Amino acid sequence: MAALPHRLLPGLLLTACLAQAAESSRVIDLECDYLPNICNRPGESSPGMMIEIGSEAIRRAGFMPRTKIRPWNRAMREVIDRPNAVIIYFARTPEREALFRWIAITNTTDFRFFSKDGSAPCNTLQQALAAGLIGVRSGSSALSWLAQQGIDSRRLEQSQLPEMAKMLKAGRIGSFLGASITFRSIYQQETGTLPVEGKVVYSSQSWMASGPRFPADTAARIAAALNRMKQEGFVDQVMHKYGR
C-alpha cells in the first residue's frame, strides 16, 4: 500500500482530533453516592435504579452517559464546578437551592427511623431522641430535615451506610434515619439480620440536578426525555424491577 503524502497527514490528524473532541463533548457524567439498589458500583450485577433511569434520559437527549460513584460531598463539588456533569437521586434542600440547576424530579423517597433487630420501633422523632444518638449517612439530605426540626448536631452521628449499620447493631446509636431501599440491605449484609423499621416520618422528592455551568438547553432536553420516560411507563418499570 502506497504511503500517504506528507501534506495529507496534518489534515488527517486534525480531523481525528476534532472527531475525538466532538465525541467527548457528547459525554455527560452521571454522579451519585453509592446506594445499594439505587446507584450501584461498577461491576455489580445491576447498575441500580437511578443509574438506569438517569442513563436512559441522557441517551434519549442525544448524549452518552458516564457513571461516576462518589461520596455525596465530592459529587456535589464536581457537579457544581463542571459543565458536563449531573447528579441524581438528589434532594432539593434550602442549602442547595441556589447552587444547582434543578433539571427534573425523578421520584419520591420515604424516610423513617430504623432500630436494631429485636428492639422496639421508633415511629417519631421524639422516640428516636429518647433512644439516644441518631445516625445519618454522611451528606444525606436528612441532615437538613433534622436541622429544620431544631435538632442539634451533637445529637447526631454521621458516617457511611455500612458503618451506620454496625453502630446501630452495637448500640452505639439509638436509631438511624434513612430509606428502606438502601439501609435494609446494608444492615442485613453487615449484621446478618434485618433492622426494625418505624413509620414514615417524612417524604422527600429526589431530583436530577446540575451545576450553573451546565448548558440550559441540554438540561431542557434531559428533562423532556425524562418526562417522556415517565409517560411511557419506563420509569415505573425500572422501579418495579428494583422492588419499588
TrEMBL record:
Keywords: Signal. The keyword Signal applies. Residues 1-21 form the signal peptide. This is ABC-type amino acid transport, signal transduction system, periplasmic component.
